[in-house]
Amino acid sequence: MNLWTTEIREQITYIKMAAWEALGVDAVFSGRPGGGSLPPYHSLNLALHVGDESETVLINRARLLEILGASTRQMVCCQQVHGTRVQRATRSDAGRGTLEQSSAIPDCDALLTDSPGLFLAEFFADCFPLYFFDPARRVVALAHAGWKGTMGRIAEKTLKEMNRCWACRYEDVKVFIGPGIGSCCFEIQPDLARRVAEEFPHHPQLLRRENGRTTWDLALTNSVILAGMGVKPENIQDCGLCTSCHPELFYSYRRDGGITGRMGALIGLRW
Question: pTM for the complete prediction?
Answer without folding.
Answer: 0.97
